[in-house]
Specification:
Strand order of the largest sheet: 2-3-4-1-5-8-7-6
Order of helices and strands: EHEEEHEHEEE
CATH superfamily: 2,3-Dihydroxybiphenyl 1,2-Dioxygenase, domain 1
Helix content: 10-25%
Shape: globular
Distance between the termini: 33 Å
Number of helices: 3
Number of strands: 8
């Protein structure tokens, strides 16, 4: 079911400082920046081979990313795996009693309590333009 790790999301206190550090230390480059009012964060995507690191700064302390920072501090928030058949995988997981949020097409999230504290994302691999 699970393929390659294609996303690693890291919650940070200061997005600009984290971007500067990841680009300087690891030679990464920002592919894009964005924000999600729905999920309460601003982010930067930094491609890494077949996947990417997503740096997340909470903008709303009442939403999951903000609550994560408050409870755990900075650190890994989510691991995203490439999955070829997301609907089939969701069905299989639910048959085993796993809580899966699949309200968006082509992506699903497994509740951390059902994966030993890891927030798991099932997704397709992204394509990045090279400059």
């Amino acid at each position: 079911m699970l393929g390659d790790i294609v996303e690693l999301s890291v919650v940070v206190r200061n997005l600009d400082a984290a971007v500067e550090r990841f680009t300087r230390l690891f030679g990464l480059h920002v592919h894009r920046r964005g924000a999600s009012e729905e999920f309460g964060f601003k982010n930067a995507i930094l491609p890494t081979g077949i996947g990417h690191i997503e740096l997340l700064e909470p903008t709303d302390p009442t939403k999951p990313v903000g609550r994560f920072l408050e409870r755990h501090g900075e650190g890994v928030y989510l691991v995203g795996f490439e999955v070829q058949d997301i609907p089939g995988s969701v069905s299989q997981l639910r048959a085993h009693g796993v809580r899966v949020d699949s309200r968006r097409p082509n992506v699903a999230w497994i509740h951390p309590q059902d994966a030993h504290g890891v927030f798991v994302e099932l997704r397709k691999r992204e394509e990045y333009l090279t400059a």
